[in-house]
């Protein structure tokens, strides 16, 4: 299945380098294993429109049969924070159904995932971390996709 | 005037017979149905299309890989209903030629 991810990612890259929705930008795609995207969130006072949030996508050779690993990255230069959200842990791990093995579908792609995460932030009304954030960040050694998240509150 | 052909070059075009409102690309590999999945070299019979009961279409090899993966839970990637391959049907004219209308109505679809 080695050829699968590279052919599909090359197609996605061509499209992404053409057009992307407002507030979503490609930062780097130097290879077909790791890409980074920047998001900005319009019209939500929790996330100032000048701030950008960096997503890291990691693809396995069996993408898109297997979901990519998608997390927020923090950095100081340029300054990127982990956005505050009841489903985003301070280590950048995102609890979102379409990213885990139960909710993933191979029709999703980098653009559609970015849009989903952007709208998850745009619609957020609670400047809070998930319950148990400190404990999870201290103890988690699992890869994001292996974590069995409890979807505490599907309305968020 | 008499015209003599010394040579001719025939060109043919083909398309899959897919449901009318179907996409023209496979949602899994994002290649046109008339092209091949990521693994195949030659389009057409070597890389056929599967139509689901839900009318969603995929390259057979693409949907096969997905359904073999545990996370698919046997569901269509587009609509998440259980993916069932639709029984291929001959065009209406061809069926009518073989059955009288009553017979055709009574004959259950082959499974």
TrEMBL record, chain A:
- Can you give the residue ranges of the UBC core domain? 4-156
The record ties this protein, via InterPro entries, to: Ub_conjugating_enzyme (IPR050113), UBC (IPR000608), UBQ-conjugating_enzyme/RWD (IPR016135)
What are the alphabetically sorted keywords of the record? Ubl conjugation pathway
Q: Which CDD domains match?
A: UBCc_UBE2W
Keyword Protein biosynthesis listed? The answer is no
Under the heading SMART domains, the entry gives: UBCc
The answer to keyword Glycoprotein applying to this record is no
Q: Which SUPFAM superfamilies match?
A: UBC-like
What protein does this entry describe? UBC core domain-containing protein
Organism source for this protein? Oleoguttula mirabilis
UniProtKB/TrEMBL annotation, chain B:
Q: Which SUPFAM superfamilies does its entry note? A: RING/U-box (SSF57850)
Q: Which GO terms describe its biological process?
A: anaphase-promoting complex-dependent catabolic process; cell division
Q: Which GO terms describe its cellular component?
A: anaphase-promoting complex
- In which domain of life is the source organism classified? Eukaryota
> Listed GO molecular functions?
cullin family protein binding; ubiquitin protein ligase activity; zinc ion binding
Q: Which UniProt keywords apply?
A: Cell cycle, Cell division, Metal-binding, Mitosis, Ubl conjugation pathway, Zinc, Zinc-finger
Residues covered by region (Disordered) = 90-111
Which Pfam families does UniProt cross-reference here? zf-ANAPC11
| Name of the protein described by the UniProt record | Anaphase-promoting complex subunit 11
Species this protein is from: Oleoguttula mirabilis
